[in-house]
UniProtKB/TrEMBL annotation, chains A, B:
Residues 5-254 form the Glycoside hydrolase family 65 N-terminal domain. The active site is at E472 (proton donor). The keyword Repeat does not apply. InterPro entries: 6-hairpin_glycosidase_sf, 6hp_glycosidase-like_sf, Gal_mutarotase_sf_dom, GH65_N, Glyco_hydro_65_C, Glyco_hydro_65_M, Glyco_hydro_65_N, Malt_Pase/Glycosyl_Hdrlase. GO terms for molecular function: carbohydrate binding; glycosyltransferase activity; hydrolase activity, hydrolyzing O-glycosyl compounds. Belongs to the glycosyl hydrolase 65 family. Residues 680-717 form the Glycoside hydrolase family 65 C-terminal domain. Substrate binds at W344, D345, K584, Q585. This is Glycosyl hydrolase family 65 protein. The keyword Transferase applies.
Length: 749, 749
């Protein structure tokens, strides 16, 4: 992926996100090693997944049960800085003359590249090539391969390389969303430059976490401690046509995952120095070969789209936490937006990709909710519940960090979203071991909450009141269709899986029952609640209703709402928005996609109805509209909404890519192809397909890992399948058993 | 009113509120002149009505249109301190021996009294009598009459009297509601002790207001400036059986209402010194004679209740602002609770007393909303409205100060509450001049908002969605019965009054129309909206429904909710409470009281229904339940709820009287008698009565000022009326024209 390459401040900040190098454990934004011009703004950032500081929440008017603290991802020690001086002049893109300048992210080889051909004011001509690698195989390791080639200069070149712990989180006085305090989160604990390796550790004050970072170089450098940083310096002579190559090894180790992070940080760099950089670049490529084997999407007909799609997929891999207590934050590790919090985005928008291509990584995401069950129990109690757990709406460590309950804690659907992702994982993998060890406990305890939130009304129907669905433009509603239908599914599957496990091995089941404290009466209650769940439907419109008051609300004249008034939430009081029949994002139709639980005609009508009143002010929306347009065979619409997703960050469509990439949308891009165009669903009886194909493409191909079998699907004018093991495939209700390669005619496009 | 007189910290703090001396312009809490013991907590406070500092509001998660600033009543310069030293010992109640100790508020003479008989550790025996007067006739003047009588001591007595500007607002670290910052709000500007008078002025930083205060004494004192205070000192010789009398004159003048407040502050004290204290004590008594002529309530049968009722009435007089830009804050001038803000309490709970007894003062309250229309216009715009004004939920200067819109800005009913109070004023006074000058503009502009908030739904009914009614335990509901029924009344009366004024004088009307910019189409819309207003009714229960989802909500098991879990809002997350069919306070039945718009059977059923689910966690609730119990002739219930109101502060029933008196409840006490027991309503065709009488009372008497006629009503086994002018009286639908005295038999108790 090559990016647009302007040197204006805004483009540079967007590229900091787009060209960040992350491996899921840490992420480094794509800042220039030498920095920008002084008058430029920059978010010079390095983040560790799950590494946070605790911050206070203050309320104008607080109330019982509100969270008093939040968490914020910390901008940790900065290892990016490298400065070179030629004949006394600092190399930088804002002085002298830039002859050539390219930047790209190589998603096959797993590094970012910056190439500059440059003539200094004094006329010295250089070619500089910088590669950055965040190792997928040694998660603590960051490498900068910095090569200087002299075209016409002979003389001394001075190289300075810094490890800087004098760091702050980003704030911007002119933007009130990031203007607030909470910027200086790290405080230097130890600095050490003995034995030719530079190491600093820093601590957070309240969460009491430590991050350590070491650096060393292939060139012999002299290290000097200067306040809170260590600067390495070396002078070399260079001649015309000669190259000098600096390899900078930087490690990041944190106290959550490392016993003695200071020592381990040194160790990572020492080992890396011994192995040399080529070892890691090769490893990286091999790791990615294996990754792409299951993950690559090919588009025949629009090469730019293929690039964009796989760029987004690569960002999913770069964002996913691979060690304990990590997940995927809304912006991955590419920025500080949403303070590094994890949301339902994970389960509904990101897990699907991993479940279908890389179940091992999917398990990591799923386990996070298991690891944080204790906090979820506390949150349920704060919300007044006598049983069950409540998954926090936004969190890093597991405790609720939402300071606005109407579109935070009130989104109870997150309990069912988490459950949904466990169930989908089970369907794609058949992994009952995981169920027994982790899954069922999460499923059961999250399901218990429904019994306490909802109730059987006078007519014996199960009602869930005063919750907020995915659409944040109507809040605290009764019987939100999305929530109820997912809760119904959730409750049904807890019963179903219990019975599967019981049948599998009764004594195992009894042990499990007692471990989780599963109560038979509660299972019966769950069954009843699921069966009696209210799913709102309008006889008149033949659509499912978003909530019990939705139809009655005032109409918002979207056609005559001017462009600059979007997103509505930045231009209208919430109370005003809540009064209208207007949706921020897919809600009912998201349920239709996930559950495939209504007739075609209802889904079609619902799609048309909600499309008219949805602003897509959330980046979580267009991908779902694309998928459901595919589902109801509106190919042009499907392609239209797909187009809104694939380049959402690449073209900075939301205007805030500088704060980090929209990783849920990245997952959405994948889903528009696989769930959308191809119509894939994993159900109990096998893989379902019901493809369409955009007329712009001659064919498209994706792979999945289905029950340990690599399955390759190509949709052209036919459906071509390649599978390692025999699979059951249902195409528009016709069932096939397929082994090896098979080409099927298909006339239903 | 004599009060309980313990020297424990809690009782003292409660008495600070109960024995505060206020005149509506300023209020001084009933602190001891000499202070308490060092380990005691105290809210030593003096407040000026409408004198505030602007404070920041911070939100955990803000949104468009939220207020960024609030306002807070300022604890101003303290003039209370007087210390006397006998033989080197400071007189105080925590050393030596207290022989006798009484405190009371004399509501006929208008001062508070503290009497102590005390023997010092050294055995010196004194009698001390302290009277405090906040003058109703010279609003800026506060007098302390401090008399020391020696029983057995002969020797020197040293008197110190202080004017202290080193003041802060109250905070208490163990109570998070008052723990926050915003305590040091005043900064000394000028100090002057020339010409034998002590004067200090202080400023607020952000609202940029100045308060000046002067003091002087009948005794010649030497004044010393010490940091931010001026201390007067004098030594006198006293003999056994002799008295020394210190008269301390203190003035308060603020820059909102005074051109040169520093100078005017001196002036007030200089004039007072010339007149002498007796002049003001006499004036005070005369002022109160006139006041009680219209306001006194007599109870034959329970003298303590008579005292309690008239104590509450006196607090209404003490709290009401009598100059421009003032109103009545929720706690009057007796404490800092609710930060000195004005709420709907004024119009619905306090205006009625003034309208019925003192229309001149009622006009002051009504005019406040006129004076702040510009801010109300801005607030409407922030809430997204293209027309109309939105009365702020809580304010001092007129701008919205609510930091929690769900039970703040969302309470749109305040627009109709204000309108209601104007209409009631008109009915009781026939004052069309006031309507033309102020009233109609407020009525029309507040009514316009309904047309923008509500809408005609598909069935042509007028619907008002996403607002909060008086009951703050269900928020942001659709078609709240209270809101809709008051809006209906509001809209109807705008049309009606327009037509009355048009008929009265067409050219005046045209001038007025153009001044207010009244649009004929909007009047037609108002008429339609009023006629088509949705008023929810359950055929099954034969009650009015609080909102369109109310009946469907979960039941809260109030019977098994333990005492310590009340008020619910301090023990449950709001979201939990909102999910239940539980009311904080009277809502639907408040509308029934105000509008008398439903059949007896509906009102009866509604009363029974809502009584079961109401917690009365708001002090605004029991009085309304008492009134409606009277309305449906449940005498025992009426008396039961009346009892919850009359001593609510006197017996500190809510536990927070230390933070100030519940002035809306004080208005409620009056209403339980006049609207409740006697069943009085002022309608277009005259005064309606439908009395009941508690069996504990042999008779009760009240007076009103009806169209400039003093009308005295006594309910015993008969109805006795005395009126200055002929009035039209309707008793249970039978109409009488009454002049002079008349005794009517009545068998319907």
């Amino acid at each position: 992926m090559q990016v647009k390459n302007n040197l204006d401040n805004n483009s540079l900040m967007v590229n900091e996100s787009l060209l960040s190098t992350s491996n899921g454990y840490f992420g480094v934004r794509g800042n220039f090693e030498e920095g920008y011009r002084n008058d430029y703004d920059t978010i010079r950032g390095t983040y560790i997944n799950g590494f946070y500081e605790t911050t206070d929440i203050t309320y104008g008017e607080g109330a019982f049960g509100y969270p008093n603290t939040s968490q914020k991802i910390v901008n940790v020690i900065d290892g990016q800085t490298i400065k070179i001086y030629i004949d006394g002049e600092l190399f930088n893109l804002f002085d002298g003359k830039v002859i050539d300048f390219k930047r790209k992210l190589d998603i096959e080889k797993g590094y970012s590249l910056r190439y500059i051909e440059w003539i200094s004011k004094k006329g010295h001509h250089l070619k500089i090539t910088i590669k950055r690698l965040a190792s997928f195989t040694t998660l603590e390791l960051f490498i900068i391969d910095y090569e200087v080639e002299s075209v016409n200069y002979s003389g001394e070149i001075q190289i300075e390389s810094t490890l800087n712990a004098d760091v702050k989180n980003y704030s911007n006085k002119s933007d009130q969303r990031v203007a607030s305090g909470h910027t200086k989160l790290l405080h230097v604990d130890k600095i050490d430059k003995n034995h030719g390796i530079a190491t600093i550790s820093s601590k957070t004050k309240i969460s009491n976490l430590t991050i350590a970072s070491s650096m060393n170089h292939n060139l012999n450098m002299e290290y000097t401690v200067k306040e809170n940083s260590i600067i390495g310096m070396v002078k070399k002579n260079i001649k015309a046509s000669e190259k000098i190559s600096l390899i900078k090894y930087i490690s990041f180790t944190d106290s959550i995952r490392h016993d003695d992070c200071f020592k381990e940080s040194k160790n990572v760099v020492n080992v890396a120095m011994k192995n040399g950089e080529k070892y890691y670049f090769k490893d990286q490529e091999e790791y990615l070969n294996e990754f792409w084997k299951y993950s690559k999407i090919n588009i025949d007909g629009e090469i730019e789209e293929e690039k964009a799609i796989n760029y987004n997929i690569y960002q999913l891999l770069s964002s996913i936490g691979k060690v304990k207590n990590t997940n995927i934050s809304a912006k991955g590790l590419s920025g500080e937006g949403y303070e590094g919090h994890y949301f339902w985005d994970t389960e509904i928008y990101m897990v699907p990709f991993f479940t279908l291509t890389n179940p091992q990584l999917a398990k990591r995401l799923l386990k996070f909710r298991y690891e944080t069950l204790e906090s979820a129990k506390i949150e349920a109690e704060k919300l007044g519940h006598k049983k069950g757990v409540k998954i926090p709406w936004r969190t890093i460590s597991g405790s609720e960090c939402s300071a606005y309950f109407l579109s935070g804690s009130a989104q109870y659907h997150i309990n069912a979203d988490v459950a949904y992702s466990y169930i989908q994982y089970y369907l794609a993998t058949n992994d009952t071991e995981f169920l027994k060890e982790f899954g069922l406990e999460v499923l059961y305890k999250t399901a218990l909450l429904w019994l306490d939130v909802g109730y059987f009304n006078n007519e014996g129907k199960f009602s869930i009141d005063a919750v907020t669905g995915p659409d944040e433009y109507t809040v605290m509603v009764n019987n939100n269709y999305y929530t109820n239908s997912l809760a119904k599914y959730h409750l049904k599957w807890v019963c179903k899986l219990s019975s599967i496990l019981e049948k599998e091995n009764i004594s195992d089941w009894n042990r499990l029952k007692s471990k989780i404290a599963i109560n038979e009466n509660e299972l019966t209650n769950m069954k009843n609640a699921s069966e009696k769940m209210i799913l709102l439907y309008s006889d008149e419109l033949k659509i499912n209703l978003q909530d019990d008051a939705f139809l009655k609300r005032k109409e918002w004249d979207l056609e005559n709402t001017s462009e600059e008034n979007y997103p509505l939430l930045l231009h209208y009081h919430p109370l005003y928005i809540y009064r209208y029949k207007v949706s921020k994002q897919a809600d009912t139709i998201l349920a239709h996609f996930l559950l495939d639980n209504e007739t075609d005609i209802i889904m079609k009508n619902s799609y048309s109805y909600y499309e008219k009143i949805t602003t897509h002010d959330s980046s979580l929306s267009p991908c779902i509209f694309s998928i459901m347009a595919s589902r109801i065979k509106k190919i042009d619409k499907a392609y239209h909404y797909y187009k809104m997703t694939s380049k959402l960050d690449i073209e900075n469509i939301k205007g805030n890519t500088k704060d980090g990439l929209h990783i849920a949308n990245a997952g959405g891009v994948y889903m528009t192809i696989v769930y959308g165009f191809s119509g894939l669903r994993i159900k109990e009886n096998g893989i379902h397909l019901s493809p369409i194909k955009p007329k712009e493409w001659t064919s498209y191909t994706f792979r999945i890992n289905y029950k340990n079998s690599l399955v390759k699907v190509t949709i052209s004018d036919k459906i071509n399948i390649e599978t390692e093991k025999e699979i059951s495939l249902i195409i528009d209700k016709t069932k096939y058993l397929i082994s090896g390669k098979r080409s099927l005619n298909y006339n239903n496009f």
